[in-house]
């Protein structure tokens, strides 16, 4: 499959580009090892696993107010299959493959910084969003 015009989709919700600072979008397929070690001669003995995990992270543009933030956060939260874990099915562009990978992922805790607040609005600094895969196969 070729590039389909989006970087990340959470469930059925495609994250709009206006919420992604392109130069701060990072993605990759993370290999996993089990009990790998270096012996007394410094030789690495890897037990690389077939299953891998994806990780996708980006920063939002700065100066987002509450009215602009609500659609993206509500769109993501509506896709959780497990709200306690913040778990969702994520489809993300992976340049290593030149294709999309779909995997169950979770959203790590988000830290927001408030730039400004008054009686009618709240404005936020840029903040990081990420999805970390639970693990699986990638073709």
Quick one: biggest sheet?
A: 7 strands, antiparallel
Number of distinct helices: 1
Helix content: under 10%
Q: What is the radius of gyration computed over CA atoms, rounded to a whole number of angstroms? A: 18 Å
Low-pLDDT stretches are none
Judged by helices, strands and strand pairing, the structural class is mainly beta
Straight-line distance between termini: 12 Å
Q: Overall pLDDT, averaged? A: 93
Strand arrangement, largest sheet?
2-1-8-9-12-6-3
Question: What gross morphology would you assign?
Answer: elongated
Number of strands: 12
Q: What is the beta-strand fraction?
A: 35-45%
H/E element sequence: EEEEEEEHEEEEE
List the helices and strands and how they pair.
Layout: E1 8-10, E2 13-14, E3 26-30, E4 37-38, E5 44-45, E6 53-59, E7 64-65, H1 66-77, E8 87-94, E9 99-106, E10 114-117, E11 122-124, E12 128-133
Antiparallel strand pairs: 1-2, 1-8, 3-6, 4-5, 6-12, 7-11, 8-9, 9-12, 10-11
């Amino acid at each position: 499959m070729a590039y389909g015009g989006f970087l990340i989709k959470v469930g059925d919700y495609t994250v709009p580009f206006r919420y992604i600072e392109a130069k701060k979008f990072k993605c990759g397929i993370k290999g996993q090892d089990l009990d790998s070690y270096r012996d007394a001669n410094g030789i690495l003995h890897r037990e690389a696993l077939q299953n891998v995990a994806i990780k996708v992270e980006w920063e939002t543009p700065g100066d987002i107010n509450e009215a602009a933030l609500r659609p993206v956060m509500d769109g993501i939260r509506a896709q959780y299959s497990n709200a306690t874990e913040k778990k969702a099915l994520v489809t993300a562009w992976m340049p290593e493959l030149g294709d999309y990978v779909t995997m169950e992922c979770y959203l790590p805790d988000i830290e927001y910084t408030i730039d400004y607040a008054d009686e009618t609005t709240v404005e936020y600094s840029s903040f990081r969003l990420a999805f970390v895969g639970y693990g699986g196969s990638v073709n």
